[in-house]
Amino acid sequence: MPLLEITTSRKVTATVSLEEPTANLVNQYAAFTHVGADDVVNKALEYVFTKDKDFQKFIGAPHDAKPIHSLRIKRSGDDAPKGKPGRKPATSASAPTAIPMANVATK
């Protein structure tokens, strides 16, 4: 029986880097539980966050702590800001021209 009960919910897209053995285990656990790998990562993190008593104290207290590198989050749907601030939408711009691979210098 799996330790994690996984249900789907509203999501944001976040970019993270995992060590290869960890990524392989995530995929294996996803196959074991018959859910997506994203759901495994989400529930595993929720589980750790709720079980770590020191972390619970940390988030319950006021602080100015910032992560060294924040999680890169891409929002989709209704929560997403429309366009980039300070930029106007492009008008009739032509598509970029493809460069044949024979003309590209390699190192």
Description:
It is built from 3 helices and 2 strands. The longest helix is centred in the middle third of the chain and has 15 residues, at 37-51. α1 packs across α2 (37-51). The N and C termini lie far apart (52 Å). Residues 78-82 and 94-107 have low confidence and may be disordered. The protein has a two-stranded antiparallel ribbon. The chain is globular, with a radius of gyration of 21 Å. With 107 residues, it is mainly alpha-helical.
Key traits:
single chain; 107 residues; two-stranded antiparallel sheet; 6% strand
Q: What percent strand?
A: 5-15%
Q: What's the overall geometry?
A: globular
Tell me the total number of β-strands. 2
> What's the rounded overall pLDDT mean?
78
Give the helix level as a range of percent. Answer: 25-40%
First-last Cα distance: 52 Å
> What's the number of helices?
3
Helices and strands: which structural class?
Answer: mainly alpha
Order of helices and strands: EHHHE
Q: Kindly report the spatial arrangement of strands forming the biggest sheet.
A: 1-2
Largest beta-sheet details: 2 strands, antiparallel
Radius of gyration, CA atoms, in whole angstroms = 21 Å
Low-confidence stretches: 78-82, 94-107
Summarize the structure.
This protein is mainly α and 107 residues long.
Tell me the layout of helices and strands.
Layout: E1 13-15, H1 20-33, H2 37-51, H3 53-60, E2 72-74
Antiparallel strand pairs: 1-2
